[in-house]
Structures are given as structure tokens and as C-alpha cells.
Amino acid sequence: MAKVKTQYECSNCGYVSPKWNGSCPSCGEWNTFTEKTVSRKSSSSHKAKVEGLESTAAPQKLEDVETSEKTRVKSNISELDRVLGGGFLPGSYVLIGGEPGVGKSTLTLQIAKASPELTILYCAGEESAGQIKQRAARLGVESDKLLIYNETQVDNIIAEAQKMQPDLLIVDSIQTVYRTELSSMPGSIQQVKECAALFQQLAKKKNITTLVIGHVTKEGDIAGPRVLEHMVDTVLQFEGDKQYTYRLLRSLKNRFGAAQEVGVFEMKSDGLVEVSNPSELFISDKTTGISGNAVVCTMEGTRPLLIEVQALVTPSSYGSPQRTANGFDRNRLALLLAVLEKRVGKNFSNHDVYLNIAGGFKLNDPAGDLGVCCALVSSLMDEPITPQMAFIGEVGLGGEVRTVPHLEQREKEAKKLGYKELVMPGSKQKNGIRYLHEAIKKALR
């Protein structure tokens, strides 16, 4: 007869303890331990392996190993293929994460529309087949090789995938699938870890390209154990503000391509539409002649983007001046204000400072420092920046303007969009600047 015991599991990291703890020894979070009743099954009653995945290959010499780099499978969605590094590699294991409603399921369903020749097994654990058909009709999906499978039992999914041998297996989502041998509920750390490991074996041993969708926590991280991101070959993060229609698909990890590559989409009534020139999304043509606006050139992966920075500096009505930043790190803003006061002589101590990155974009590239500083001084002095001017450069604590990578690509992108004058660091570039006060003098002349 199976023995029953009680243990405590951390809901944040999955650490298991025989007794309750206020603070988790592994992750340090408080009040995360929940009581679990576990039945010990005998080794004969516990099915440790899944049929078809238990076979192991013999060791091979390196020169005998065959590679499949030359046989990448295109999704025919150019922005998705760009992020993947040229398409799906056969036998690869891809994880897509994002907030609810951002477009994860829509994107995976549109693969069937763009590549109707691919055999796709779509395992749906969150929607019924009728709901998926309605969404497919709205998106214009008419593929005869798209098969909907309403199943959440991982053994059944793997058995069906081995029988069909599809070009692409889509699991929506990893938090809904479960294994009956485990006593925990679907979505728990134990279930997610076990099911993810089985899908990994399916992808590698049977050479079935597997794409799983994952939920995210309120902090924006992919829900479940951190080991989930280590198991997969590629981690894609779908980002986007619900107040705007654009979406960014970013590769956080990619074993077969460049990490931090970005694809840009726009959400419309008929699905996600690729954006060929994303810089136009983040630049307005109605802010010419207004103080506090500057255009900076940032890099997202290997793609240069022009972003509009908006600053508003007003006299403070209270004892403590406000420092508010939307889409920009507040600590970085405080640092740049200190540099402007110490090295340039501009006083912000009795002014409220508001900084916004237009379009809901998040500017993390240090190359945007120069444009942010010029926008702040422009608003403080109420003088607009010279028209058709863009800024590239990192600002150091000494007030010096430091060089940044990919200057030539940034310069080419800015000139393509009609920015005739660039404020850039270094002496090698024509009219290059060395110090922050030179850039401000040039911008507000």
C-alpha cells in the first residue's frame, strides 16, 4: 500500500522542505510555503518513462554527428524568422512567453496561414476546438494540414505527436498540461518541470520541432521554474503595451541565432501584421518646434530604431521636486540630472522633471543618454531643438560623450528617415563631439 507523507513546497521556486518555513531558504521569499500531501508509490507502480522516448542512442564521434542547419523550416513570417535566426531548426524547442492577450496564440496560429504546406499539431488546453476555429476564420487561416487536438494529458500528446510526426508541434500552454503520475495540480512547478522535460525529449529524440506557450507572472517573468528557460533552445518574449497596437517579439535566448533580436508587429482586427519600418511607429511629425523633444537612435538586437524622447521641466510647487520617468530607468534619469548640474551648470534642483519615451517604448540603450540630456535642457530653457537632428551617444559622469557600438548602422538608419544632422561622439566622425556641453550648444543654437 502506498505510503502518505506531508511536505511543504515553495510556490515561487519549488524548494521542498519537510517542515514549514516563514522564509524560503532557496529564493528568500516570505510566506510562500504550501502544504502538500504526497503518496509514495512503489517503483513498480510508477511509470517513469513515456513509451517511445525511453530508447537511448550509443555514443558517437564528433565527425559522425549529422547537423541539420541547412534544413531550417521557414514560417514565412519574416519578423518571426528574423528573431529565430532564419526559421525553425528541425528538432528545436522554442518557448514563447507574454502577458495575456498580447498575441501569443494569434502568432502561432498565423504560422499555419503563412505556411499552409506545414503539418501542424495544435494542442489546445485553454480553448475549445470551436473557439480556435472562430479565431482561425477571423485570421483567414485555411490550411488543411492544421490539426486541433484538445488534450492536456502530456502522455497522450506525446503519443499523438509520435504517430503523426508533424512539422511543428504547438502546445498552448505549458501550464495547462499535466502528468497523471504526479499528485500536484496542472501549472504547479513539479508538473511544469516534468512536462517540459518530456517535450524536450520528444523534440531531440524524435526530431519534432516543438513550440510551447508560457504564461508570465505579474513581474513579467515566465511562470514556472527557472529551469524551464534552461531546457529550451530559444526563449521568445512577446512585449507590448495594451494601450498601443504594436508588439515586440524579443529573443531572450537563442542557441541557433542572435540573442536580443527583435521583430515588430502591429495588432489589427485581422491579426498581427509585420512592420517593415518600425522607426515610424515611435516618431511623431507633430512635435517640430516644441521644446523638450529629441530623437535618439537605439539598437534592438541588430536592428536600429529611432525613438522620440519627450521631457517636461517645470518649477516645483512643493518642497521635494518630482522625478517621473515612463519607459526610462529612474535611477539613470537621476544620474543624468546630476551630470547636467555638475558638468554643464544647469540647475534642476527646484524643478519637477517628467520624462516620457513616446509610443510606450522602453529605452534601455545607453546610446539614448545624449538625447535625453538635450531634451531635458531644451525643456528647462524652453528652446526647441534644431529640426531634423538626431542624437547618438552615452554620457559619462565627467560630462564626456562616450562612443557606442554600431555607429554606422545607426547613422544610416537616421539618414534614411530624413535626419540630416547627427550629434555623435568621437573625433573620427565628421563634426563629432567630445563633451556634453558641446552637444547642448549644437542642439540649441
Automatic annotation (TrEMBL):
Residues 352-445 are annotated as: Lon-protease-like. SMART domains: AAA. Belongs to the RecA family. RadA subfamily. DNA-dependent ATPase involved in processing of recombination intermediates, plays a role in repairing DNA breaks. Stimulates the branch migration of RecA-mediated strand transfer reactions, allowing the 3' invading strand to extend heteroduplex DNA faster. Binds ssDNA in the presence of ADP but not other nucleotides, has ATPase activity that is stimulated by ssDNA and various branched DNA structures, but inhibited by SSB. Does not have RecA's homology-searching function. Plays a role in repairing double-strand DNA breaks, probably involving stabilizing or processing branched DNA or blocked replication forks. Residues 69-216 form the RecA family profile domain. InterPro entries: AAA+_ATPase (IPR003593), DNA_repair_RadA (IPR004504), P-loop_NTPase (IPR027417), RecA_ATP-bd (IPR020588), Ribosomal_Su5_D2-typ_SF (IPR020568), Ribsml_uS5_D2-typ_fold_subgr (IPR014721), Rubredoxin_2 (IPR041166). The gene is radA. Keywords: ATP-binding, DNA damage, DNA repair, DNA-binding, Hydrolase, Metal-binding, Nucleotide-binding, Stress response, Zinc, Zinc-finger. It holds the Pfam family AAA_25. A motif (RadA KNRFG motif) lies at residues 253-257. The middle region has homology to RecA with ATPase motifs including the RadA KNRFG motif, while the C-terminus is homologous to Lon protease. This is DNA repair protein RadA. ATP binds at G98, E99, P100, G101, V102, G103, K104, S105. NCBIfam families: sms. Residues 38-66 are annotated as: Disordered. It comes from Gracilimonas halophila.
